[in-house]
Amino acid sequence: MASVPSLAATVNQRVSxxxxxxxxxAGAADPLLRRSDRADFQANGMLALAKKLKGNPRELAGKxxxxxxxxxxxxxxxxxxxxxxxxxxxxxxxxxxxxARAADDRLGVPYAKNPGTTVIDYAxxxxxxxxxxxxxxxxxxxDALRHLLDFTGEKTIGRHHIGDWGTQFGMLIQYxxxxxxxxxxxxxxxxxxxxxxxNRVYKASRTVFDADEEFKERARKRVVALQSGDKETLDLWxxxxxxxxxxxxxxxxxxxxxxxxxxIVGESAYNDMMAETARLLEESGVAVRSEGALVVFFDDIxxxxxxxxxxxxxxxxxxxxxxxxxxxxxRNRVVDLQATTLLYVVDVxxxxxxxxxxxTARRMGWLNDQVTAHNMGYGTVLGADGKPFKTRAGxxxxxxxxxxxxxxxxxxxxxxxxxDLTEEExxxxxxxxxxxxxxxxxxxxxxxxxxxxxxxxxxxxxxxTSVYIQYAYARIQSILRRAGEARPVAHPELPxxxxxxxxxxxxDQFGEVVLDAxxxxxxxxxxxxxxxxxxxxxxxxxxxxxxxxxxxxxxxxNRLFLCDVTARTLHRGMALLGIRTPERL
Length: 585
Ligand code: ARG
Prior knowledge:
Blueprint: H1 7-22, E1 33-35, E2 41-43, H2 45-52, H3 57-67, E3 74-80, E4 84-89, H4 91-102, E5 117-121, H5 133-151, E6 155-159, H6 168-178, H7 191-211, H8 213-227, H9 231-254, H10 274-283, E7 288-290, E8 293-296, E9 311-314, H11 322-336, E10 341-344, H12 351-363, E11 372-375, E12 381-383, H13 399-417, H14 423-444, E13 451-453, H15 455-458, H16 466-482, H17 498-507, H18 510-519, H19 523-543, H20 553-576
Parallel strand pairs: 5-6, 5-10, 10-11, 12-13
Antiparallel strand pairs: 1-2, 2-4, 3-4, 7-8, 8-9
Bound molecules: arginine.
The site of arginine (ARG) has 8 residues, from loops.
């Protein structure tokens, strides 16, 4: 359980020490080390530093070279161009570092420096409504961020802020009272039945609601009964919630995602806090009465005709809405859950809402320098044609159909390559590959951008896809199985081929990428890293035969070691994204 400093960090430290010795007035200067094509690393820091101190960069770089004595680490260091340093490290240091990583369950990845508690609000569908691709994105991104944060030592608490409250429940409940047999008990239905029941009730009640004024009135009274906690009304409301959860869980299961019941805390959970939230806001003057409503104004948020757009905490009729529940949720998360960070994974189209909610919470002191909030607003999911995602008939695509189709397409890809798989295995792998493909496509686009949902591209074996990475992993497993008696053992004394060095140096960067992706809430940095890792492995595989009879036994062991540590890195990295890596494909 020891963290292993990366080669980049070690080299950076050495250069930095030499730099401070050569130029004491520079203090602890950053040599700005980067990976490079010419050598292993390039350091550019001397340029800016010499310029600032009116010195000659080449001269300074030369002094740094003279000051570095680390033969076990640095094989070659030379001044180039206007004053860069090109640095090549020893093969031995690469293998020794990888061996230290391999000895650790976490591959030597350190924990983040100052872990805190992050409450992450993701996967928040709405009761009695079908989930759509937008909900899919929140679930996939949120789940990956959570794995990433957990891995860095952050404590995470999930909150699935489901839409389980609001005036539409008056209509639904009233309809059920008048048509009692319409909703089967939640324990008797599967996900698909639950959703089709809910859909039917929703449509039927909407039809009556729109056509029948008297029903409309009864529905309105029902909302009041619900809000005042009438027992019969609440019981019926609970039935809608339970039935919906059966459906949600079936989708999350398909998504191969673990959702905990105690973390499904929807809008309704904050019902009892809302009046107090409003009172605190009003007493402090942060919110003011305007035309009967309780609202918060912002200087920089204006709508049409330059009119200020306020955040409505309480409507003129006394009702509380979305903002009041979110403000109450912030109080709960900060005070009761002791969060240091509030992270929201919500469609970018709600970013104005969150901007106003966060600013209000800051004015109240609920958010401050120690407790911050971020919305990872994600972009819209588009069809392959670049238009909002719809079926040919122009309807919204059912999420389940989409996931089923992904699994089916992936099964076809698996079948084509499968040599020794049974039909059952093909279907199982198909699901893992297909769901993985959907997740990967989602995660590899930086979240704030729209992305095209193109199944053909997603399950392609070539290009930046999860399937490509899964194949690299399965191929390694197949080599390890075929190795017979030979074990993966690092041999630092052996010289490395270029493809081995490139692979090894990339494996070594895993920890930095993970910490960076977690700190920036940027899973796409990890997907890019893993894709490159799989590509470098493919090059290694083509150029450096592992189980070749002509290889000396220690070469076989050393290459098996590189295979193994690569596989473990791929596996761990994919797991952090919520994607499986089947042992055989
Ligand atoms: N249920 C909402 C929707 O489907 C998303 C909830 C987001 N979270 C929040 N705390 N407001 O649009």
